[in-house]
Each structure stands twice: as structure tokens, then as C-alpha cells.
UniProtKB/TrEMBL annotation:
It comes from Tersicoccus solisilvae. InterPro entries: FAD/NAD-bd_sf, MQO. Its cofactor is FAD. This is Probable malate:quinone oxidoreductase. The gene is mqo2. It catalyses: (S)-malate + a quinone = a quinol + oxaloacetate.
Amino acid sequence: MSGEPVTEKADVVLIGAGVMSATMGTMVQQLEPTWTIRMFERLDRAGSESSDPWNNAGTGHSALCELNYTPQAKDGSVSADKALVINEQFQLSRQFWSHLLQTGVLADPKSFINPVAHMSLVFGEDHARYLKTRYEALKPNKLFETIEHSEDPDVIAQWAPLTMAGRPRGERVAASRVVGGTDVNFGELTRQLTAKLAENGAEVAYGHEVTDITRGTNGRWQVSVKNRLTGQRTSVDARFVFIGAGGGALHLLQRSGIPEGKGLAGFPVSGEFLRCTDPAIADQQNAKVYGQASVGAPPMSVPHLDTRFADGERSLLFGPYAGFSTKFLKTGTYLDLPLSIRTSNIVPMLAVAKDNMDLTKYLVTEVLKSRSAKDDSLRQFYPEADPASWELITAGQRVQVIKKDAKRGGVLQFGTELVTSSDGSIAALLGASPGASTATSIMIDLLKRSFPGYADRWASKLTEMIPSYGRKLNDDPQLADEVLEATNRALALA
């Protein structure tokens, strides 16, 4: 028997035990240790959906190798602006993690972050010219000063041996590399943060699903929670609510009824990876190698051959092979998409469907792609790959944001979208890449929006945790050197 609902109170309610909620909760505990925090996760452990290392969130996105962050303009030029923003954001995460390691919140850095070179690899004349232009645009910037570029097959073979062995010598190949990249196991990071949250007084409830969010007459939020095992229902009266439930965030945002959520819709994209855990192969290469996306492909579908570290093991991952599913979560249901349709978002959804035929064609092609065709794609990056050494695994779900647009009716957003109520008392994070890598930056933004009256009170503590807080490393070479040296030392990356 579920019994009568139990009513409780909390200063902060975090929905979902992924890296976003874990980061938000950790920041709140650092800034306001007396605030009460409740975290609810529908699964049986933290970091099991989008934050899991096998569910896409493993690169440590810092724009060192991801070409979609440096698009080419019609005149052939390449802007470094977006890449700089993302790299600055990732540097905030590195500083915050360093602080948490020094204060005992996090344990051995090798358990969640490891040095791995980040490399871009392209084929053909046009792509080679683009990559050279990109290199020239990034190189003058402090945060990209260590980037290298080569079109010499022998040099590229030294950088990433598997990509060049067996490749025809006449093929035009170009590569850029930054040695100081990383691989991040966001699942492990999330679990350490969540465990420490609980140790420091937060109530973390696994196997609990938030079913509704409503505004109470007292102006606070009433969060309805169900224990998935016992059926017991709880109502939590919360001052502030953060919906960090990955693909599940849209449904809960809609239930909240805030005007800022009106008209928003989600476009789910699923996918698969090929994974190789054979040490004889994986140990040959210590690089993340990113290529160019296919025509019509969403940014998160950029092909890449990744060195990964998970649970103490080193492996290689190739993909992703995009697909389509109406689920919003890997553990969701096929009704997720249809149940998200509202009168306020149907027009934007139809407009996006009309304007993104290339994406539709790409997804259909990917869904129909055979295993042998997937192996052929792998061999474009790793010519001598033996399919028998690679297993096909299902990746996590990504839900891209669809927003209203006055001219086009609706637009498909690639990236993350932080939606907050006008009074800042409730917020939801929607979207995908660069996502987890920029969690610290996103949560700082959220704190500013939701607790503007605390800005002065928190400034010194934020600067203690994040030395470059309020400044840009790229504009201050001396500060950049100090911060990079300190974080490399703390994260055992030096």
C-alpha cells in the first residue's frame, strides 16, 4: 500500500542525479552549507543516463578538436569565437574539480579524468584547406597556442597510428592536434559528487520519480515524488527546483506551467557506437580523433575515434551512428515524444520538420545502415580495423530543443538551453553537447539568475573555488599560465 502522501520541505530540490544536478548541489553546499537539499533519481544509481561514459558524455568538450564549434563562413573564413567560449567554460570545470580534489570532495583524479590528445582529422582538398584555416584562426589565441597542424602522413601516423596504418599514400590528409586534451568519465565524477552530497547532509533518493511540479499558494513549488519500489508518494515543498533530468526535463518543465516553457519541444536522436576493449588495439593510440560531419548530420553525430577510460579500463570507441527513437531517455518509453506535444509547440515542431529535410534523410539513412556499412565507416578512420574486435553498443538519448521563431515558425537548437522562470525559482536544462563539460559554467549562470541577491555574498567563495571567475583566461596570459599549471597539477595531468 502506498499510503497517504508525506509532505516535507527543502530549500533546494534537484531532479535527476546526473552531472548537472550533482554540480548544482555541490556548489550550493559549498556556498550555503546550511541549506537543505533533496535529490531525486528514478534509477538506482547516479550518472546512469546522459552522464554515463558509454552514453556519449566522455570527451571533455573543449573545442580543441570538435570542428562543429568552428564553422566555416561562405567567404571561407573561420571564426574562433565559439571555440573560445566553450574552452573557457571547460576551464571553469577544471578549476572547480581541482578545488574539490584539494578539499576532499573528489578522490583520485585518475578515476574520472585522464590526459588524451585531441585531434581533428580530415580527408580531401576542401576539408584540408578548411582545417588549415581553422588552425590559423585558433593558433594566435592563448587557450589554443599549443595546437599543431600537419599534412605529413608520417607525422600524423606518429600522432594517431591507427588512423594511418594501411591508408593509401596518395590520399590528401590533414590533421590538427592539441596534446593537452582530456578524457572525462562523467559518470564516475557524478557518482563521487553525489556520494559526497549525501555525506554532507543532502538527502539523495534513488528509485524515486518526480511525477508533477506545481506552484503552491505560498509561492513555493510542490514537487510530487513516487517511490518506484513501494509506491509511497511524497510531496516536497521547495524554495528552488532544478530540473536536471536530461531528456526527461521537458515533460517536467511543461508540468510546471511556467510561461518560459511554452512553445518548447524536443527532437530526440538516438545512436550507437562501436567499442573495442582489446588492450592490444586500444593501447596503440592515445588520442581522440574527430572528423567532419556528414551533410545534414546533427553536431553530436560527428564521427570520432575515441580513446576512453572507464572503470579503470582503456578502450576505443567509434561512432556515433545516429538513429531515431521517440524515447527521451534511454530508459524512457516510446510515448515520450507524443506525450510532449502541446498546442503551443505543434507549430514549431511542424516548421522544424519542414525545414530539416536533410536531417530527416540523414537519420533514415543511418537507421537503415547495416553492420557492414558501419564497419566501412570505421575503416575510414582506422583502415585496418577488424570488425570482430568491435562490439556494437547503444548510446544515450539526446533531445534537441525546438523553439518558436517569429519568421520560420520554429527552429531546431543544437546545444544546451537553460530555461528559468521569471523569478528564478525553477529552472530546467534542455539539449545536449557540449553539455557535461560545461556544467560548472552553466550552474554559475543558473546561480546568478536564481539567486541574484546573493551575488556579493558568494563572490569571494566563487573566486576561491574558481580563480578565473569573472575573467577570461584567453585575455589574461599570465592568469592563464597560473591556472593551467595549477589545474594540471591538481588533476594529475602534468
